[in-house]
Amino acid sequence: MTDQGAMVVFLYSSSIFAINPLTAYNKTAEEAKAILQPFLDVLADLSIPYSSAATNYSSYRDHYDKWMGPLPYGHVEVESYNFGSRLVPRSVLSDTTSRATYIDAIRYGADTYGVLSAGVALNASAPAGVDNAVNPHWRDATIHVQYSTAWSNDPAQWDTMISDQKRMTDDIMPPIEAATPGSGNYVNEVDFRIDGWKEKFFGSKYDKLLEIKQKWDSTGVFYALKTVGSDVWDVAADGRMCRA
């Protein structure tokens, strides 16, 4: 699907699978249906019931509002989930053995911990001659996949939520990382406890980004956890910051 110019958002757990939506830029609804049809044929061959619909909009905004809205906030309540994520290289899915290992890893999270997963399949390879700050791991990836467990802001649930966060780091994500060796993560939707963040979030671009950071923010005024230059600060449990 991605080879034909589509971006596919999908959702799955131990009990459900859904594509919502498949976005085919600059194509008609009929062309989008043709892209999806081989997948629907497989479902039919497996006697798996499904429903599908195709729409056509003149703007991406209207398309988004229909399938991911309502705008401006959308229908995904991200504050209700604890996240982990991984960029899945195309090479992992192309090889029979590595693909089976990856499938075993996602089944482990779903079956053992009730993980809900959402993915975005797309072609993010770089056009010729483009050199920018995008994490190089995106260029080899065909899927950005998220793993989530429920999150509650109820103070009475705090200890349970912290335990769930650590479970994401220590139990759920390691099999996924092992199944996708050498890949990385999308910094905006990731387990914040992850180790090796410089390579996983920024790859070979980190040193250049740090050079720019030091030029324009030499005192480190602008800070975010595990971002470029953030290790000049130590943050205490109470949030107080000191120079490392």
From TrEMBL:
Gene3D superfamilies: 3.30.465.10, 3.40.462.20. Coiled coil: none annotated. Transmembrane segments: none annotated. It comes from Colletotrichum fructicola (strain Nara gc5). This is Isoamyl alcohol. It comes from the Eukaryota. Pfam families: BBE (PF08031). Residues 186-224 form the Berberine/berberine-like domain. One of its GO terms (molecular function) is flavin adenine dinucleotide binding.
